[in-house]
Design goal:
The structure is a homodimer. Chain A is an alpha/beta fold and about 300 residues long. Chain A contains eleven helices and eleven strands. Helix content of chain A is about 40%, strand content about 20%. In chain A, helix 4 packs antiparallel against helix 5. Chains A, B: Its cofactor is Mn(2+). Chains A, B: One of its GO terms (cellular component) is cytoplasm.
């Protein structure tokens, strides 16, 4: 019997990562592959809402991928992969981020496209294969797309995302603006979290040359809930930066309604962060007008500054 | 005025690399981009024949890519890129090899597919864009496809390559078996070369962990022409391995008619090469039955052995 292939997204999974893993496993199964969706960490409240809304079981947690066959979705760098991925065989990659450090020995399918969500690419792969996603799968893909693009408002949004969102909404039988607004309220249920949970809930590590950085993002309609506890949040950031030996920990508190970001910073390399973001921090805080995308507006200039 | 983007393949360019660069630049131009094909080295006799046959100018030689915008075709690792590529902006990658070490700061299009040639993927991109290649462009794409797959005989050949070859042959107005045989005779004009020219004419460098390797391939219908001068060839391989501090230099002399390979080896790490290829060298020579593809049958096991 041949081995199952796990379809899996990044650590600290978000809605696009989970929904893409489930949807791509379904497409691979339709095509005769033995593919199983999996996750590399705990579900966030928004994703829990989405899975319940579309009546889909949560993918099981893959604790250690050593020796397994993996299809990576929504990431392509080892600082974000499931534990053991370096000892796994990477069979395919579908993503929409910068090109990272995952290498393979053999030629594989790697489809990375500069669009708003991995779900967008997967919807097009269904099309290419002549398959129509089921109502549930369309609901999941739409959720991934709307979550990652902040209901088509993020600067990462492309015309392809808009076209795909309409197609998926029709199959899923929802109004995407209305459904999107419902999603956002779940994304922003942050009041119940501890500062440490808050800063690590949507969090990614990056290696830029010799520097390791942590960059977290809180997308919310109520940034004041975070900023009113700034001292406790900064203390949690300091702790994480020290434990993990980060050169800097940047937290983006993104206001989904005003479409801008307040950044907090901890660590030793604050001046390099200032140079990268072309800003000045006052009491470890800086306002970044128009910034909504970690991937497109924050990671590239920080990488340039740190390399 | 905005900057031109160079579409460029790997060093020691082969027919697939050159034809893919020319064809993709044409597609990008049709889509309104300012894209110019370029090359990272001298043309081989087969590629010269192809450009004359289809009456297409050779792309100009890009000596230094620093500060330029690049679209990489037919490669995605820095040991094979044009000089200065690390200081260039990589805009897109279209390839059919293993996933290598090229990283980017921003999300880009990276389409890597496990098919027989980059030309195959480009033909499908023409299709996706609703464009039909001209007779000349179809002739170039067919040449890249037939050259890389040894007229659909290499184990890297997929059903997609076969379908695309028929479509391109129809547009170009040639019989692909007949045209392919004509191509092969040009590929195998090696009798006129010095041993050093011979071993470097289709040559790639790889970094496997701390080891640098050179792996050359001579695809020919007359392997005896190479093997009869074995001592001179090994001496040239020794020279190159010493100059460039390779752990090993492996030369694959591939018999296109018998569909097997005789490997020659030089350098300090012969035992690791033996372990990787699961063979024993006698007087620096080993016979590899059924081996035709450097990419699929030689690079992966050598990488495993050296890491």
């Amino acid at each position: 019997m041949s081995q199952s292939t796990y379809v899996i997204g990044h650590q600290q999974p978000d809605t696009d990562t989970i929904c893409s893993a489930v949807a791509y496993a379904r497409l691979k199964e339709k095509q005769g592959a033995d593919a199983v969706p999996a996750r590399a960490g705990e579900l966030n409240p928004e994703t829990q809402f989405v899975l319940e809304r579309w009546d889909v079981d949560a993918p099981s947690h893959l604790e250690d991928a050593s020796g397994e066959q993996l299809i990576l979705v929504d990431h392509n760098e080892h600082s974000q992969t499931v534990t053991g991925a370096r000892e796994a065989e990477i069979m395919e990659i579908i993503d929409h981020h910068r090109i990272g450090d995952v290498e393979t020995s053999s030629p594989i399918l790697f489809r990375n496209e500069p669009v708003g969500s991995t779900a967008t690419i997967l919807s097009e792969l269904f099309d290419d294969a002549g398959e129509t996603p089921s109502t549930r799968t369309a609901g999941l893909l739409l959720s991934g797309l709307l979550s990652d693009t902040v209901v088509l408002r993020s600067p990462t949004t492309t015309d392809r995302d808009r076209v795909v969102a309409e197609e998926l909404a029709e199959i899923a039988g929802v109004d995407y603006e209305e459904y999107g607004k419902e999603l956002l309220t779940h994304k922003s249920k942050i009041g119940e979290k501890t500062p440490r949970e808050m800063i690590l809930s949507d969090f990614k590590e990056f290696e830029f040359g010799t520097h390791e950085l942590g960059i977290g993002q809180i997308e919310t309609v109520e940034p004041a809930v975070v900023l009113h506890q700034k001292d406790a949040v900064l203390e949690a950031m300091d702790d994480v930066a020290t434990e993990r030996e980060y050169s800097a920990f940047v937290l983006l508190v993104t206001d989904l309604l005003e479409e801008d970001t307040t950044a907090l910073v901890a660590g030793d390399e604050i001046e390099t962060v200032e140079a990268g973001l072309d800003t000045a921090f006052s009491e470890q805080e800086a306002f970044l007008p128009g910034v909504m995308s970690r991937k497109k507006q924050v990671v590239p200039p920080l990488e340039d500054a740190f390399r």
